[in-house]
């Protein structure tokens, strides 16, 4: 009897512990529970991996680093990195730092870094520096996005040829009916209709186009290119991915690109799957998770 009682107590204790676990994250694929090992395996078989983050989510930033580190080991160093957080006209400065030619203080002073660089993106840059990895500044310099916001894509035609190396060839292709851009217009009170007030969405599209363009310019056969960006830019295979596919279709015939997307959702109830499948893999984290900024 004592043994039975002890066994029941142990079972009850295990059930209590399971019901009171507080997982930091859960991974889903196609709405079904998945695992880190499955995500890693899929990433290793891809040409392009888009890690769509919430900029202030610490779990996303930690997993970005873990993905980079583990893929680097699995692929024998055959990976490249790129990020929305760095602008194309700072590529030289980024390269100089990665090559150890300039001091970190100069890099920090001149790079136009995001306010959360030290906590969220520095580990990736330092990993690239230590392991001699390419790290591509893919975003368009913000001054050109601002120009489009004020004057539409036509504003890009006024810049000198030297400036045009920092954004894709003009005219910039643009599909105003893409759900992401329509949602942006609706959010800004524009009723989802394109027109003169479409410039905010066009500025966003310029960023997506630039990131897609610079990713393809730096894609190396046999290497996995991992790109870090806000989830909005790659959710539902829109944004950057639309432009990657567009520009890739204009190039010489090549094997189809294997693209993998990762996104996230913050939830109150971690026992429930994500409400939307915006990516190949969804990372669910508690809404109460401490933010990085």
Word description of this protein:
This protein has ten helices and eight strands. With 293 residues, the chain is α/β, with parallel strands linked by helices. The protein has a domain at 27-137 and 210-286: 3-Layer(aba) Sandwich (Rossmann fold), CATH 3.40.50.11550. Helix 3 runs parallel beside helix 6, helix 7 runs antiparallel to helix 9 (199-217) and helix 8 runs antiparallel to helix 9. 34% of the residues are buried.
> Going across the major beta sheet, what is the strand order?
2-1-8-7-3-6-4-5
Helix residue percentage:
40-55%
Q: Structural class, please?
A: alpha/beta
CATH class of one domain: Alpha Beta
Which parts are unreliable, with pLDDT below 50 for 5 consecutive residues or more?
A: 1-19
CATH topology of one domain: Rossmann fold
Any idea what the radius of gyration is?
Answer: 22 Å
Number of strands: 8
Q: How many angstroms does the end-to-end distance come to?
A: 56 Å
Proportion of residues in β-strands: 15-25%
In short:
With 293 residues, the chain is of the alpha/beta class. Helices cover 42% and strands 16% of the residues.
Topology:
Blueprint: H1 2-19, E1 26-29, E2 32-33, H2 36-44, E3 48-53, H3 58-74, E4 79-87, H4 91-98, H5 104-110, H6 117-130, E5 135-139, H7 142-151, H8 179-187, H9 199-217, E6 224-230, H10 240-250, E7 259-267, E8 281-286
Parallel strand pairs: 3-6, 3-7, 4-5, 4-6, 7-8
Antiparallel strand pairs: 1-2, 1-8
Tags for this model:
single chain, 293 residues, alpha/beta, 8-stranded mixed sheet, 10 helices, 16% strand
